[in-house]
Amino acid sequence: MSLSLRFQIRNILYAICVFFLFPCQLHAQEPYMVPQTVYVGDKAVLIAPLGASHIGIGESMSIEPPAPTDELVVHRIVVERQKDEIRLVVEFTAFKTGVIELPPIIAPGFADEFHLSVTIASLLSPSTMSLSPPAPPLAVSGTAALLYGTSIFLVLVILLVVSARMFLIRQFLSLSVSFRNRLLIFHIKRCLDDGRKNPHKDRILDNLAVEFRLFLSRFFGIDCSSLTADEFSYFPLSSFGSIPDCPQSPDLRTIFRRLDSFRFNAEGVNVDNVLIFIEDVWAFVEKLQIRAVKP
Question: Helix or strand or coil: residue 141?
Fold first, then answer.
């Protein structure tokens, strides 16, 4: 075999390898969403596998997301490497049901644009919005009046007994809660009185703050030991809104913000700071007492 023929055969084999290996499919797998079913307003992630490793792609490469529209907001676009695979990750929120086309995505290092789409499900499915079948007609028997009367009487007696029992249980629970709240308020007021009498006591402000947080935790059933002052802005006091002069969440935020300013003051804690905190807590507890005494 001549050298020229060998050279031609080698070029042909090389061309075949380039034809089948180099222009590999852009998407080795179909794109998928996390979660699989996405509803209107949910934040989701669309993942498009890009196949084998690509030259020039590091661990991650961010792409500027397109401008938001009324139908779609793209939060983040990243081309990332996962082991030996490259994938395109698009984080988005859709505000329309059905199939939504994403704007074309251009990634550095890839010749073609990425044209992707997502399917957004509806919270209300038309298949589930159907009326129930009509109830069967009632069978009336004129000869069973006595039986029906006795059955109705027994049912009424049972309902009366059950209602009375539930009423008594609710009253007992309400009285128990009221009694517990009275004890908690009595305890925190006694701690505040001790603080008034001994404002110079070592770490008195820290001890009163711990007692107040413990009181709030037990009174409302919410762990308040690690809440910050700003987190008390969202404290669930809405159930007390119908009571006149009811304490509000901003009251707690103000109390704990002022407490933080006292505790971290460069000049240290003084007696005036202790007394101000005691008066703030006392006023808040007085408002709570209106609710606590009612069963």
Answer: coil
